[in-house]
Amino acid sequence: MEHEESFEEREWIWADSAYPLQTWVVTPYKKPEHYEPDNLVFNKQVSNLCICSEHAIGFLKGHFHSLKNLRLTIMDMDSH
Fold first, then answer.
1. Which run of H or of E encompasses 49?
2. Is 57 helix (H, G, I), strand (E, B) or coil?
3. Is residue 80 included in any domain, yes or no?
4. Per-residue pLDDT tens digits for 13-39
5. 11 lies in a domain?
6. Could you tell me which residue ranges the DDE Tnp4 domain spans (predicted)?
7. Domains contained in the chain, number
């Protein structure tokens, strides 16, 4: 919520297409732009990153069962 305080000038996060494109959020291309060849490659790379991230979180939750039901809201650097 406080991305100005959480990110430096050239930092950003990957997100899926449910999130709006912002200066600090990189999302896949949506229709009709995602049919361009370069955009298809970009979307594939973003998809691979999302899969790796989901696998990493699943791995952590599988090994540290206390994380399974952990729900936190990150509002600023202190809560991060």
1. helix 37-63
2. helix
3. no
4. 888 888 888 888 888 888 877 678 888
5. yes
6. 7-70
7. 1
Instruction: Point out which residues pair with 14 in neighbouring strands.
Output: 26
Q: Rounded CA gap, 49 and 36, in Å? A: 20
* Alpha-carbon span 20 to 61, nearest angstrom: 28
Inter-residue contact 77 to 11 (CB < 8 Å): no
CB atoms within 10 A of CB 28: 21
**Cβ atoms 47, 28 nearer than 8 A:** yes
Confirm whether 78 is domain-assigned. Answer: no
Whether residue 40 contacts residue 34, with contact meaning beta carbons closer than 8 Å, is answered with yes
Range of the domain at 31: 3-67
Q: Which pair of structure tokens corresponds to residue 39? A: 């955009």
Q: Of the ranges 14-18, 31-35, 60-64, 66-70, which is most confident? A: 60-64
Give the separation between CA 49 and CA 52, rounded to whole angstroms.
5
Assess if residue 23 is contained within a domain.
yes
